[in-house]
């Protein structure tokens, strides 16, 4: 679909780009072009286009006047993100493909990671000596940002522009990782914290702080708990995080345990082949994987008025790791609302192998191999291209993978340095070891 106003800019040379001036570099015609490109790409690539409960073309057309009239490039980008969020898909989103000329204006978070537990938000890691000197540390609770209660702030300033497939992802993702405090580097904010000891204090700063505490932390961590139960935590399947070599070095110690907890809570995904590699160590039989399908377009078929076509595939079963001893003792898997993407593919394989119980809360409910597309004028998008099912043919995208044993993380115990979900997993495994 091409919107009428976009026709006048099809031959534009792209000399203007979003964020180039920090003001309103894009005119109505350029904005219409970006909208038109996005709507067209969604129509041909979005795996769930045929399941939309509304007419997306009509929505785009109705949105054109307000998008073209946005007062700044930033407002246009946010409006496009809000429009994209109407697709209700965590792997379909709009982003700025370039950065402003002034480095101080680049969008960045405060140098700390955060996490929502229940109705509270905590710091989980600090990367700045400035913040540390002010008293910010792991397990500090964030109470307010710029005079707004932290949940109100996230729901007002982050959530409306977040692409999401499920309510649980929309509830928790705005407060996870680095997403909560992202804004222009020069933007000064006041953040009120409460220390683990109960002291309330406020830090005021721009976001242009030095990240001078970036000690390395492995995405794969392993330790042995009481009763010779192992805890294997995998926080990412990204290529730059997940080291198969490092995992192989840990494998001997893992094999020595009598039972194992695999923790992929807050794992946002990455490369699903790493998830498969991990899973291949925990079943001595081929593991069933979920089938998938994707939109398919053949121009000649369209000229003959064929109905929309889809490519379908059932992957071959995942084979056990070659030349390795396979772990066949009791295992449980921990998940939560920000277990996402290829981490959910790991859940699918784990369930398909009938390998053990899943403990925690429903996962983020989104995967699908997005395609990246340059929409022009410094704006890009990713669009989900795969509709995936679990190994039993059930939908989990838009739903989440439901645990066998539901356990919500306890904020009070977190401040004390305890993890009630791990404790529940250990309690369960002890019953399986008898």
Structure characteristics:
single chain; 434 residues; alpha+beta; six-stranded antiparallel β-sheet; six-stranded mixed β-sheet; 12 helices; 27% helix; globular; disordered N terminus
Question: Brief overview, please?
Answer:
The protein is of the alpha+beta class.
Task: Give the SSE map.
Layout: H1 28-45, H2 56-68, H3 73-85, E1 93-96, E2 107-108, E3 112-117, E4 120-126, H4 129-133, E5 141-145, E6 148-149, H5 150-157, H6 167-172, E7 183-184, E8 189-194, E9 200-205, E10 220-225, E11 229-234, H7 244-255, E12 259-263, H8 272-279, E13 292-296, H9 299-303, E14 309-313, E15 331-335, H10 342-352, E16 356-360, E17 370-376, E18 379-384, E19 387-388, E20 405-406, H11 411-415, H12 420-433
Parallel strand pairs: 11-12, 12-15, 15-16, 16-20
Antiparallel strand pairs: 1-18, 2-7, 3-4, 4-5, 5-6, 5-8, 8-9, 10-11, 13-14, 13-19, 17-18
Helix pairs in contact: 1-2, 2-3, 8-10
């Amino acid at each position: 679909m091409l919107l009428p106003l976009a026709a006048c800019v099809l031959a534009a040379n792209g000399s203007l780009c979003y964020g180039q001036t920090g003001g309103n570099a894009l005119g109505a015609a350029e904005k219409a072009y970006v909208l038109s490109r996005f709507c067209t790409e969604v129509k041909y690539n979005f795996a769930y286009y045929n399941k939309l409960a509304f007419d997306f073309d009509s929505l785009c057309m109705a949105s054109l006047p307000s998008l073209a009239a946005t007062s700044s490039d930033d407002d246009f980008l946010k409006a496009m993100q809000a429009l994209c969020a109407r697709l209700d898909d965590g792997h379909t989103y709009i982003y700025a493909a370039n950065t402003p000329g002034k480095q101080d204006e680049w969008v960045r978070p405060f140098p700390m990671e955060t996490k929502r537990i229940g109705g509270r938000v905590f710091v989980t890691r600090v990367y700045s000596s400035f913040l540390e000197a002010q008293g910010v540390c792991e397990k500090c609770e964030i109470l307010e940002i710029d005079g707004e209660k932290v949940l109100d702030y996230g729901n007002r300033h982050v959530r409306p522009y977040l692409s999401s497939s499920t309510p649980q992802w929309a509830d928790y993702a705005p407060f996870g990782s680095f997403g909560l405090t992202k804004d222009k580097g020069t933007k000064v904010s006041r953040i009120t914290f409460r220390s683990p000891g109960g002291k309330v204090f406020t830090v005021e700063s721009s976001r242009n702080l030095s990240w001078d505490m970036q000690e390395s932390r492995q995405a794969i961590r392993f330790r042995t708990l009481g009763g010779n139960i192992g805890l294997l935590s995998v926080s990412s399947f990204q290529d730059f995080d997940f080291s198969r070599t490092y995992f192989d070095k840990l494998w001997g110690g893992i094999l020595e345990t009598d039972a194992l907890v695999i923790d992929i809570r807050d794992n946002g995904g990455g490369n699903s082949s790493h998830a498969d590699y991990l899973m291949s160590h925990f079943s001595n039989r081929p593991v069933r994987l979920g089938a998938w399908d994707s939109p398919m377009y053949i121009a000649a078929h369209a000229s003959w008025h064929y109905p929309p076509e889809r490519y379908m595939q059932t992957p071959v079963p995942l084979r056990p790791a070659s030349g390795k001893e396979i772990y066949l003792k009791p295992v449980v898997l921990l998940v939560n609302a920000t277990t996402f993407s290829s981490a959910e593919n790991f859940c699918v394989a784990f369930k398909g192998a009938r390998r053990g119980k899943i403990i925690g809360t429903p996962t983020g409910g989104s995967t699908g191999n997005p395609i990246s597309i340059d929409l022009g004028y410094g704006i890009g998008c990713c669009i989900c291209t795969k509709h995936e099912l679990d190994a039993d043919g059930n939908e989990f995208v838009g739903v989440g993978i439901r645990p066998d044993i539901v356990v919500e993380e306890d904020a009070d115990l977190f401040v004390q340095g305890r993890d009630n979900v791990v404790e529940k997993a250990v309690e369960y495994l002890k019953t399986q070891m008898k």
